[in-house]
Amino acid sequence: MSWNDKLNDTRNQLRGLNKAIPDATRAFGGLGKAVKEGGVLDFKTKEFIALGIAVADRCEACIVLHIAALVKAGATRDEVGDVLAMTIQMGGGPSMMYAAKAMECFEELSAG
Fold this sequence. Notes:
By secondary structure, this protein is mainly α. It has a single domain, classed as AhpD-like (Up-down Bundle), CATH 1.20.1290.10. It has helices at 3-20, 22-37, 43-56, 60-72, 77-110. Helix 1 packs across helix 2 (22-37), helix 1 (3-20) crosses helix 4 and helix 3 (43-56) runs antiparallel to helix 4. The longest helix has 34 residues, at 77-110. The protein is globular.
């Protein structure tokens, strides 16, 4: 499955969840908005942090959503690589395997 397909599937799954539990998903969305728009760090930096956590937690759906946000925010391959290197340093071998997936995802989604 391509990362574009994974992104579309993830978004469709979230739409289904939104229909099933709208109050909970709306509340979670509000938290995300407050965290991403508030504070002193810019949006892209916060997405880099989220990507590092997604890789460390081995969540492919999270990886594709945060990579998509980073591509939209103008992240470069070098910036993503730096975040992934730090994630590998903190998480070891398992993080390295998911960092490889994240870089593959970035390359596919940033290609157009």
